[in-house]
């Protein structure tokens, strides 16, 4: 075959390999994990893998035997690039941000239960009932549910 036709064939192989690299990487590694990888790593690895496959094909065509030292070395480089892609995808899988639904439930602080005599309303919003927030120290405690249900009532600072 003429050299100019081989160049066209190598260029087509490079473009097809580049497109299929991105498609297969998204299918195998997951599009969500692939979106977390910086663009320059994706471009560099896909470009290098496409170049390695074209170089392996070139080395196989130029020699008499299909399996020669150059072909084998380019295939090893391609496999190393595939392993690097897998490791990078796995790293992004381990360090992905948590989903919005994975937040822990809100905590209720019961530190005000023992200090009920020092509660006051914030601003002009009254606590219901008014006597609950402004009560003097008494031995009888109101139910804990009222303290938790009324966040407007805060501890008065001395």
Would you mind describing this structure in some detail?
There is one protein chain. The chain is mostly helical. The protein folds into two domains: 3-101; 113-155, no CATH class. 59% of the residues lie in helices and 3% in strands. It has six helices and two strands, in the order ααααβααβ. It has helices spanning 3-29, 31-36, 39-62, 69-94, 130-133, 144-149, and strands at 119-120, 154-155. A two-stranded antiparallel ribbon has the order 1-2. Helix 1 crosses helix 3 (39-62) and helix 3 (39-62) runs antiparallel to helix 4 (69-94). The longest helix has 27 residues, at 3-29. It is elongated and about 80 Å long. The protein starts with a helix and ends with a strand. Mean pLDDT is 77; it is low at 145-149.
- Number of separate strands: 2
Give the helix level as a range of percent.
Answer: 55-70%
Total domain units: 2
Spell out the helices and strands N to C: HHHHEHHE
Rg over C-alpha atoms, rounded to the nearest angstrom: 34 Å
> What percentage of amino acids are in beta strands?
under 5%
């Amino acid at each position: 075959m003429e050299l100019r036709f081989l160049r066209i064939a190598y260029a087509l192989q490079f473009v097809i390999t580049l497109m299929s690299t991105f498609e297969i990487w998204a299918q195998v590694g997951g599009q969500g994990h692939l979106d977390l990888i910086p663009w320059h790593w994706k471009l560099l690895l896909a470009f290098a893998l496409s170049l390695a496959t074209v170089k392996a094909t070139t080395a196989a065509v130029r020699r008499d035997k299909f399996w020669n030292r150059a072909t084998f070395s380019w295939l090893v480089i391609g496999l190393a690039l595939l392993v690097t892609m897998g490791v990078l995808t796995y790293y992004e899988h381990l360090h992905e941000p948590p989903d919005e639904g994975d937040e822990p439930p809100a905590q209720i602080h019961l530190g005000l239960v023992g200090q009920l005599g020092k509660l006051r309303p914030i601003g002009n919003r009254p606590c219901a009932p008014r006597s609950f927030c402004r009560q003097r120290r008494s031995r009888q405690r109101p139910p804990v549910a009222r303290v938790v249900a009324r966040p407007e009532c805060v501890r008065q600072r001395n």
